[in-house]
Design goal:
The protein is of the alpha/beta class and 334 residues long. It has helices at 2-16, 38-51, 88-101, 148-161, 220-223, 234-244, 274-283, 309-331, and strands at 30-35, 60-64, 67-74, 77-83, 103-104, 107-108, 110-123, 127-129, 132-137, 140-145, 168-170, 186-189, 196-198, 201-204, 269-271, 287-298.
Length: 334
């Protein structure tokens, strides 16, 4: 009897001293902010740095599988910002890579994807937020709808954003010289006062026929590999560029690419990434919205001949306006 009592007491003591397993900390939810080109993401990073709540948290650069991500916070929102590269194939691959790179307990931390960039449209400087995106590819088209809650959030920030939108085109920093701010030198003012327009259909096309256009190390604020203010690892980018450029060596590959591209009938914005990103975000169960500012369209006092002339002249104005709307959307809580 005594032995039984002792054994029972020993078992109770062992049970009482057993370490309890602590529950795993909750997974953060992140907003993935994407842009295709250095001029676009550079404008977002500059706007983020200018208006982020104090104390301003520093952005941490994380390089995962050779790709740079800028990780930080805006208020209570966790952000991941990165470049996709130009074209739908790059956009799709970069979006999928981001979902795979930021995971917690086997699930992606990304709950929302926001694209900030330029597009073709009606009036230069306007920021277009389509409610629907058609991703047109050589294999057919897919249609993605933007969540009503995200569109409603975009509509709520319109009144505060419209007065901030810029009308005068900066010269920008085409060579990524970074000697002065891209907005330091101004040129001409557009004839139409830019506004934010929410709704309508956006169209994403693939001028590269299912191939991924590589970024160019030292390629400036359009074709470069990183935002001008964050130029890093040129050797790494050069290694990726060499094999990637081979399919584009034939001049006939670009036949028609630099033809004038007025907005397609029935669509409020034309670009080369948003539809592909929307499709990929939907596949991962995340919301998607795009803020596309018009870089080639009406309201040009110089009467330049459409794309690409207008794009190269007004790209910084459009990128700035897209960034103003994007950061305001994020600040409002999406």
């Amino acid at each position: 009897m005594t032995l039984a009592l002792l054994a029972s007491a020993g078992a109770a003591e062992a049970k009482s001293t057993k370490v309890k397993k602590m529950p795993a900390p909750p997974c953060p939810q992140r907003v993935l902010v994407l842009s295709a080109m250095p001029v676009e993401l550079g404008a977002v990073l500059a706007r983020y740095g200018a208006v982020a709540p104090k104390p301003k948290p520093k952005l941490e650069t994380k390089t995962i599988a050779g790709h740079d991500y800028y990780v930080g916070q805006y208020g209570r929102r966790n952000l991941v910002m990165t470049m996709t590269g130009i074209g739908p194939m790059n956009a799709k691959a970069a979006t999928a890579a981001a979902f795979a790179a930021f995971t917690c307990h086997g699930r992606s931390e990304i709950s929302e994807v926001v694209f900030s960039g330029v597009a073709g449209g009606d009036y230069i400087g306007d920021v277009i937020v389509p409610a629907q995106w058609t991703n047109a590819s050589p294999h057919g088209a897919t249609v993605s709808w933007v969540d009503d809650s995200l569109l409603a959030a975009a509509k709520r920030v319109v009144a505060s954003v419209n007065p901030l939108l810029r009308t005068t085109a900066p010269a920008g920093d085409p060579a990524c010289g970074c000697a002065t701010s891209p907005d330091a030198v101004t040129t001409v003012a557009v004839t139409h006062k830019p506004t934010v327009e929410v709704g309508g259909k956006g169209l994403t096309t693939d001028p590269f026929s299912g191939r991924a256009l590589p970024c160019v190390p030292g390629g400036g604020d359009v074709f470069g590999c990183t935002p001008c203010a964050s130029r890093t690892n040129a050797a790494r980018d050069g290694e990726a560029f060499a094999p990637g450029v081979v399919p584009f060596a034939d001049p006939s590959f670009f036949t028609g690419y630099f033809a004038s591209t007025a907005s397609s009938p029935g669509y409020v914005a034309d670009d080369e990434e948003s539809g592909a990103v929307a499709t990929e975000a939907r596949r991962h169960g995340a919301g998607f919205i795009a803020f596309r500012a018009v870089s080639d369209g009406g309201g040009d006092p110089l009467m330049l001949p459409g794309f690409p002339a207008q794009f190269f002249y007004y790209r910084q104005l459009a990128a700035d306006n897209a960034a103003i709307a994007t950061v305001a959307f994020i600040a409002a809580g999406g």
